Inverse folding.
């Protein structure tokens, strides 16, 4: 009879040498890869499904009016004529988000440059955290602040004085300025600008940070001042990323819904004026979808969703394209 | 020829311009936060957390009202959305990082970015068609599905980058031990990438928790607590962002002040999630 | 506007005669470090290094990786100002004036002491022409005639003009690696520095391009003082008049290249150049 410990060691050698179960090896890998790939495909299907569902649901309206007539149609009348054209909302979306980007871009770039290149580390960290924190504020919270604080303030201290001045001095401007009730295109644009600033800043800062140290030093070594280094080496190098970031911010502004719906005043007919009420594609969906009873009305709102989908798609693809085309790498640009 | 002095004055000028712009940008943002904090905290009271909203007359007559049903509904809908989004998002992220040679990956990446770039309101419309129409009623489930569409692409992207940050040598070491690929991923790579995964999930959660647009046509809203627990899932449910919107645009002053209270609760909920996520990332970076 | 080469105090006939460094008369010295120490926090990068550099000579800095060569080189035109942790003690005398004095502007120093880096650093969004004249445009020179003249001269000095004269307006990144490095040198030369610092300028280049750069260094030293870091001891022997050997932050030995390589005075130098470590 062998001693106890020898027997033990013999069995344990067998245990170690035993090959793992073929099922564990082969089937496990198969199942795992199939599950993972199915989950991946489900995201592809979701994105495609979203486009298809919006197109399908909007189909009634798009067939009724034709795609282009629907987009450029200026009448939106769910009550009497049952005629639906998306142009007022298309225009409102493009106008508010473009101006919001114009307002936000340079200040945001300045913050990015300052925190990336000038600020001492502790301050840069503080600015970054604050920017990220602000980007995390829900849209509805900005909206309630806009309704009860910003809009009344803008009305009393900016819109009214300008309007009163125009009444006596430049009556021709009044239709362009519009009714200074506080809720309208200008307020929505300002709030949009505030909301995309953190986004633009973060993306611009990423682009600036990705400029290689060598580029900066080469400029320093030529005897540049700090700003000259920025202008000569850093900003040209980062321009692709900065532009792509700006376009992505534009996409954010285009899709921004709640704050705009709460502040734009919601008017469905052109012409929109600067201070006066307007509407955007997301805002009209928010305002009318829950109350829409006519199937043509509902379908028209879905069709607006489809147009919004297309715009968002174009904006995102453009940003990706600009980033690739203008970014420096592989020794080849443009 | 510019003298050095002129160049340096220009340099100083640009610095001052940058400082002024930075202050000009940050100031209004700080003002927003402080307004919400001040107005919100002064509007908060105990009833807010214990009573249901009821009809507007309750508030107008000064009877106790609150948003307990909203807070519960938010928790149910948000976590249900998380339960839907996490497995799918992590799976898709794994496909991108662990099967880099897969022919569908470029498509998946484009589609994921597309989904991420879509306005949240479209995700609401999509969930409306997918869930509300067949069910014939607005429901917490529909809201959760809509929110999960918001979370999904963020989680997938975060998973991909968290898993890719784990060096390939670790996978190869596992494979060299004779472990099958799925064991390597689940018991070696995933635990190593844990912090990155959790951070990504928290950020997705924070982002979705603040969204109102996808909920308006899905979970719809409700002024009362449901009779039975599954009412939170199968019936129209109140959620904080959507309720905040309804309160803010309502004509009742009492509801406006309750709106500020809802704003502070929502803001704290989102920001605490966000800060935890950031805190995790920072700790991870300090370890590295 | 200065487009001519500055008059140097040393006569042209003396230019190419290397002398042992300890024989130097004070007159020949334009650049000199005295007890130069660079610290990163509490860690020493280089410690207590004193080297005089003769005018219009090439000095090679050699030593194993991490020995402080680059740290030392970057102290010579105040590039450490850009690193928050780095602290410089001691003196770097340029024309007998310490460049670390409070009243000295680093921007002026960097114009007099140019630098070429390991990797070519063309500004990728600029054309070849714009890269060369980038330093001149900084000071507001807009006169096309002057810019053209300086551009041609600098490209000629960098032995690049003939290769690129037909495509001065094409992007700088369209050049090959070796051409990009010569472009970087031309850009540094265009502002007419008195000293050119080169941090392993050939480390990312193929042998052919390396040879061109070495030939270039030979030509350039007729006009300016060059200090070059190299990992390659053959290169140091080929291009330099004097050589300084660094080891773990200390200057071990400095002297005429020929004698340092054939007859090193210190054991560590001998070990390094015979390949026993490093």
């Amino acid at each position: 009879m062998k001693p106890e410990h020898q027997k033990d060691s013999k069995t344990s050698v067998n245990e170690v040498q035993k090959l793992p179960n073929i099922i564990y090896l082969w089937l496990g890998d198969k199942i795992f890869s199939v599950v993972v790939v199915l989950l991946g495909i489900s995201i592809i299907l979701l994105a495609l499904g979203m486009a298809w569902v919006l197109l399908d649901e909007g189909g009634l309206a798009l067939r009724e009016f034709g795609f282009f007539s629907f987009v450029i149609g200026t009448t939106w009348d769910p009550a009497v004529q049952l005629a639906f054209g998306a142009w007022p909302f298309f225009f409102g979306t493009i106008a508010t988000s473009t101006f919001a980007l114009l307002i936000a871009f340079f200040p945001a770039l300045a913050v990015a440059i300052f925190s990336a290149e000038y600020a001492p580390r502790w301050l840069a960290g503080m600015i970054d955290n604050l920017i990220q924190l602000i980007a995390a504020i829900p849209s509805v919270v900005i909206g309630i602040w806009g309704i009860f604080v910003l809009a009344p303030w803008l009305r009393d201290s900016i819109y009214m004085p300008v309007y009163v001045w125009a009444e006596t001095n430049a009556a021709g401007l009044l239709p362009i300025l519009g009714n200074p009730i506080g809720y309208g295109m200008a307020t929505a644009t300002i709030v949009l600008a505030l909301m995309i600033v953190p986004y633009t800043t973060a993306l611009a800062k990423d682009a600036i940070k990705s400029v290689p140290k060598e580029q900066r030093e080469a400029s320093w070594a030529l005897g540049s001042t700090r700003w000259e280094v920025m202008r000569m080496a850093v900003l040209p190098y980062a321009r692709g990323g900065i532009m792509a970031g700006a376009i992505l911010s534009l996409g954010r502004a285009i899709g921004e819904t709640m704050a705009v719906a709460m502040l734009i005043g919601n008017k469905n007919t052109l012409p929109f004026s600067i201070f006066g009420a307007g509407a955007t594609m997301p805002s009209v969906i928010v305002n009318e979808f829950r109350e829409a009873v006519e199937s043509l009305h509902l379908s028209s709102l879905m069709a607006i969703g489809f147009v919004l989908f297309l715009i968002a798609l174009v904006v995102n693809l453009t940003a990706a394209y600009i980033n690739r085309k203008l970014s420096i790498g592989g020794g080849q640009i443009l | 020829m510019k003298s050095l002095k002129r160049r340096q004055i220009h340099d100083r000028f640009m610095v001052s311009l940058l400082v002024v712009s930075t202050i000009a940008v940050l100031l209004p943002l700080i003002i927003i936060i402080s307004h919400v904090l001040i107005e919100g905290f002064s509007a908060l009271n105990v009833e807010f957390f214990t009573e249901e909203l009821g009809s507007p007359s309750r508030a107008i007559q000064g009877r106790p009202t609150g948003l307990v049903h909203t807070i519960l509904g938010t928790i149910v809908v948000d976590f249900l959305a998380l339960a839907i989004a996490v497995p799918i998002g992590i799976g898709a992220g794994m496909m991108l990082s662990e099967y880099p040679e897969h022919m569908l990956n470029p498509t998946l990446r484009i589609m994921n970015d597309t989904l991420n770039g879509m306005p949240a309101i479209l995700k609401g419309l999509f969930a409306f068609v997918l869930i509300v129409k067949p069910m014939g009623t607005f429901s917490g489930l529909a809201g959760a599905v809509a929110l999960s569409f918001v979370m999904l692409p963020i989680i997938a992207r975060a998973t991909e980058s968290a898993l890719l940050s784990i060096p390939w040598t670790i996978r190869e070491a596992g494979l060299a031990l004779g472990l099958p690929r799925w064991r390597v991923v689940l018991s070696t790579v995933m635990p190593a990438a844990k912090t990155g995964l959790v951070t990504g999930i928290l950020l997705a959660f924070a982002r979705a928790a603040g969204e109102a647009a996808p909920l308006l046509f899905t979970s719809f809203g409700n002024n009362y607590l449901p009779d039975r627990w599954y009412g939170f899932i199968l019936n129209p449910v109140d959620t904080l962002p959507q309720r905040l919107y309804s309160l803010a645009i309502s004509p009742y002053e009492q509801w406006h002040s309750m709106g500020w209270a809802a704003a502070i609760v929502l803001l704290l909920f989102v920001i605490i999630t966000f800060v935890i996520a950031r805190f995790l990332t920072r700790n991870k970076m300090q370890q590295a | 506007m200065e487009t001519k080469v500055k008059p140097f105090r040393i006569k042209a006939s003396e230019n190419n005669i290397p002398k042992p460094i300890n024989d130097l008369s004070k007159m020949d010295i334009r650049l000199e470090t005295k007890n130069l120490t660079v610290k990163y926090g509490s860690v020493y990068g280089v410690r207590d290094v004193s080297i005089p550099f003769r005018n219009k000579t090439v000095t090679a800095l050699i030593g194993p990786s991490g020995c402080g060569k680059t740290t030392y080189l970057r102290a010579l035109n105040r590039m450490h100002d850009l690193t928050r942790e780095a602290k410089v003690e001691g003196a770097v005398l340029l024309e007998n004036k310490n460049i670390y004095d409070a009243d000295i502007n680093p921007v002026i120093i960097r114009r007099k002491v140019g630098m070429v880096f390991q990797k070519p650093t063309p500004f990728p969004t600029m054309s070849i022409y714009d890269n060369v004249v980038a330093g001149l445009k900084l000071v507001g020179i807009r006169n096309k005639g002057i810019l053209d003249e300086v551009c041609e001269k600098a490209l000629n000095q960098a032995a690049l003009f003939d290769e690129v004269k037909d495509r001065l307006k094409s992007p700088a990144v369209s050049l090959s690696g070796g051409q990009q490095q010569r472009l970087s040198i031309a850009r540094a030369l265009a502002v007419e520095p008195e000293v050119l610092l080169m941090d392993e300028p050939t480390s990312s280049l193929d042998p052919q391009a390396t040879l061109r750069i070495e030939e270039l260094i030979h030509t350039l030293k007729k006009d300016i003082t060059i200090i070059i870091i190299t990992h390659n001891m053959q290169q140091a022997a080929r291009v330099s008049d004097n050589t300084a050997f660094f080891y773990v932050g200390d200057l071990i030995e400095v002297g005429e290249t020929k004698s340092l390589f054939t007859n090193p005075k210190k054991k560590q130098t001998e070990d390094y150049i015979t390949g026993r470590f490093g």
